[in-house]
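for the writeup, i need someone to sanity check this before i put it in the appendix. the sequnce is what the collaborator sent (i think, or maybe the updated version? ugh). structure was predicted straight from it, no edits. if anything looks off just tell me and ill rerun, i have time this weekend
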Amino acid sequence: MKRILVFLVLILVIGALVFTSCSSQPASTTSTTTSKTTTTTASSTTTASTTSVAVRTIKLSYTMPKGKSVGRGFDWFGPAFEAATNGRYKVETYPGGSLVAVRTEYDTTKSGACEMNYTSIGTYPKQFPLSMVTQVPSLGFPKDSVKMAIASNDAFWEFVRTTPEIQNELKEVTLVQPAIIAPYKLIAKSAQIKSVADFKGLKVGGTGHQMEMVVANGGAKIQQIPPDSYLNMDKGVTDAAFVTFGQVDDFKLYGVANFYLDQDFSSATGMVIMNTTFYNSMGSADQKILLDTWKKAQEVSAQGDLDDQILGRKNILAAGKSIYKPTAAEATAWASQAEPAVQAWRNDSKALGASDQILDSILAKWKTIRAKYLAIGMAP
């Protein structure tokens, strides 16, 4: 009986082993297939996820020292845009021309070597001859408040959007935000300048059409960007210079200039421009986020520009230097002397193919738009 029981147990054990073996082979195949399917699905999911959340890099270059003037808003823009797009974009900010040399901003943006740049139309007068009307002395904005700064930006926006000739000048890049800086003032090393008559015999550094006011009144114009003002004035290359009060602090010009004229000349019409191919590839939703974020960034830029002006004035006085505020009559006289600058703008534009009819239209339109937004900026 024991032998029979042992025999029966052996038969049951062998049967169980055979059944397990037969069952295990399909199970292993299924597991492998499932494993492959799962792996493939995970790979597909990863690929889809990577595609949908792939981080795109935007290199943003500007010429000011880090965080100075309107550059404060540029530094704010990066993290704000990254957050607004849930990390789909990474913004690398390069201040002080550390990525793109001055006077190459337009070309590097156009080519896509840099996705976004801050530049001014005054840097490229041959590219933006008609737009240069916004920088003619007496046709700018005082930039004495954040509200006025935003009004000046909005004025340029309207100028672009309503003027086909201005749109044509921007056809190779995409304008994402005007960022007009504070108006140029006039600083001097040896004597206070109070009227155009004081230009006689002086070498004055600067750019733009206000330089024609110097020449028309017996002075010599020296083409010069603000960062070169200290060295040139210190060495006697120039006697005076057009700079903003914010730049006085940026470049420590109170260490060499002794006299400051608080008269508004032209404002540099700055622009944040973007490579058009990159902009178009973003899609309408991200484009809207981009423009909305820049609209907020302009407020930060405006405050940074205003703070720098205040700091510049403070440091001028702290250095024992004087700031001369023209009387109402003197200010009116300065404005009346802008005609050589207007004529220079017309001559330069005509040399590049613009007709008198177009120039009359452009000048009249900008005067109308400026008056509209000047009133908005001054309103309580």
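The domain at 53-181+269-321 is CATH 3.40.190.170 (D-Maltodextrin-Binding Protein; domain 2). The radius of gyration is 32 Å.
thx in advance!!
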